[in-house]
Structures are given as C-alpha cells and as structure tokens.
Amino acid sequence: MSKVAIVYWSGTGNTEAMAKAIEEGAKGAGGDVSLFEVESFKASSVPDYDGLIFGCPAMGDEVLEEGSFEPLFTDAEKSLSGKPVALFGSYGWGGGAWMESWAERTRGDGAKLFSDGLIVENAPGDAELADCRQLGENFVKSL
Question: Which CATH number fits domain 3-142: 3.40.1190.20, 3.40.50.10790, 3.40.50.450, 3.40.50.360?
C-alpha cells in the first residue's frame, strides 16, 4: 500500500474541497492517505511518503500563498528529487500561469511530476470534483 500525503492551503475552501475529493479517490485506489493543512505538515516528513500531492490556489500576481504555503514548499523542495509529486489548485483570475511556473519549478527540483497540475476556476462543481477524485486514484495507481 502506497503512503501518500496531500498537503494544501485554502483561503476560500475551493482548494480544500479539491483536496478532500483527491483524498477520496486516492483512498478508493487503496492508498494509505494522510490529508494535511499546510500548517500541520513538516517538510522533514517528505521522505516518509511514497508520493506527495500539493495544493495551493493562485494568489496575488499568480503566485503561491506566501504566508505559510510558500515557506513549507521551499523547505520541502530539498527532498523532492526522485519523489512522485502531483499539484493542484484553484484560481479566480488569469489563466493558470501560477501552475505552469509551479510545475516547472517542481520538475527543476527533480521530482517525478505526475501531470502538469490540476486547476479549477473558482469553486469546483461536480465535474471538477470527479476530476479531483480521478487524480487521486490515478496517482496512487501510478506508485
């Protein structure tokens, strides 16, 4: 059974809803899944997991949330080389440039990026939540 951490930050609840749907899909695929709000996860725990799924919405000028998520992710990057990683998040403006930059950055860390990232504009509806569950399922099956 693959051990997976889903680590997210959510300001409006949109990214949290995505995280919970991803968790549902990952558990349905047989993963040993732990869901963490970013403040509850320590970067030193990265090596304890077979794969990590990070979620953060676009903030400001299409960047990661800078108060707690960015510092955690920056610290976690030291341990991502060779690690399977998936990214997700929501946005309310722009076209997803923050996810493109984040995916490129994560590849540069040497992570085995699962996809280019799952993005949802504003609140996820039924179709988007189904996509989130599918991401969780497919990620676990790929480990």
Answer: 3.40.50.360
